[in-house]
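Changelog-adjacent note: as of this version, every example in the card shows the full chain rather than a window. The one below runs 221 residues end to end.
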Amino acid sequence: MLVRINTVPRMQIDGQLAALAGERMSCCEFRYRRGAEIFGEGEEPEYVYQIVSGAVRTYKLLPDGRRQINAFHLAGDMFGFENETTHRFTAEAIVETNVHLMRRTSILEAVRHGGAGTKDLIKFVTQNLQHAESHMLLLGRKTSLERVTAFLLEMDERLQHPDVMILPMNRRDIADYLGLTLETVSRALSILRDEGLLRFDGNTQRRLELVDRGALAKIDA
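Full-length structure tokens:
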């Protein structure tokens, strides 16, 4: 279920969406409950989204019923911009999530006539391609321990190296992103903990501290 909060003036939009939007455009703000579907695979891509708070996963269900998560989107990230006539993935809110959304056609018109956002659109597409390439390398060439380590370092960088990293996603999400089983992810995290490279904060593996980022980087090298 989603709840419309308000209409947001252009001056209140920041990041890539602001660069693409142009000077006279506004967007709407919506709130999605935890687990709510934002859009589904095969649906027409009407909107482009930017996360204000919360987190989103995009995934595809495989023919055998397994789920492959292709990306996690965090606060400030933009997603949902397709170059096809339908969405290739399903997007869901991992936790309660607020997003700004703007019609895809409006952004394309703004870029077509103003030209100001062309460079930013190319940058956004390039970043998505780089992420897809890195994800393929992660799935195809790394061991399970290297995959989990690479994921932790990726999240650490995206969250700007916090003292305590709070992951919005659970271990099942991480497993489906890395192409591993839940048990393998748990085992890898335990190995890193036992080697003194990370520390869990409390009773959950979603709050953790990276004790030795240098040693983790060597595992991922």
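Structural remarks: The two ends are 42 Å apart (CA to CA).
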